Amino acid sequence: DGVPEASGFAPTEEVQRALSQEIARQSGTAELSLAQGSIGDGWGGDVALLLSTLATLDEWSLSVNGMAFTATGTTEDAAKEESVTALLSTDLPGGMSGTVDITRTTRLLDAATLQPVIDQIADCGPLVQQSAPPEGYAETDRIVVSGRLADNGSRVRLFDALRAAAGDREVVIDAEILNPALCLIETRLPSAPSGGFDIGFGFGDSADPNPSGRYFVGENPVIDVKIPAEVTDGFLYVSVLDVSGHVFHLLPNQSRPDNSVASLRGGQAGIVPVRVAYGLAEAQGTSNLAFTVDASSLGKSKVIVLYSKAPLFATLREISEPAADYAQALADLVTSGTAAVATLDSRILTTAQP
Q: Average pLDDT for residues 144-166, to the nearest whole number?
């Protein structure tokens, strides 16, 4: 356990005293008696050298018989393994020699000790360790962390912090990079299961779908939300959390205030698509919302679909509002208990330069 215990014989009172003091310095105990017979003058110095050298290891044992010794030990440090083995494998200054068996060991790294490091940097909801070994990480194991982060700076800080704690273990940050505005909403969104409301992306100038959800400057995104066949009542709320830090309410809003599922279905059964962002030509001459991607706000936005059995808000919200205001409104829903979000679905929309 790293605390030395010495027993046996010493050739002289001076050596007995010196060895006892060395053992005590290492917080150990010594029961040494004076030996009879002659022994080399260098015995005491060599044993002291053995003790001080082996004390650098994690665990060790030493047996001395005359001018011969047997030393064993373990260490996690490869450099210590090599240096101690090299030093004790040659004849010592006082003439003592022996056998040495120093092995390198790997201590398991408890996943629980890493979580506070991870939690301190988490800025976009919880971060989790993927497939963390219950017994701890071996030296050859990978430490994989997943979740969401607000920016690449957070990713770098998390990686550096884990590398400092992981030793030689590989660290992988498998986190989705969002932005501070999205992360603010993420932390305030009510806890609700998916409702199966599929969010489809397309283009205003063609009938082609956009399965990647990636749009370039100048393109005209079209967004459809499909109402599941089994959902026939309640209310639908569709918003875009923009990279600029604003929330745009696609449904309901002042130009389209009716968000009841019954009205949106219009008497249709089965799965019903509801368009919430239109092509430019389709929206011309109407109050329907349409937009194109401009270079002023590029990055990741999130389309959020909330479904509730009763209206969530007493009045219509402005068509655009700061993300912080909407985040607070969502938090107030949870604390007040006046209305409940039954389901929540979302999808990332990415805008970029071509």
A: 96
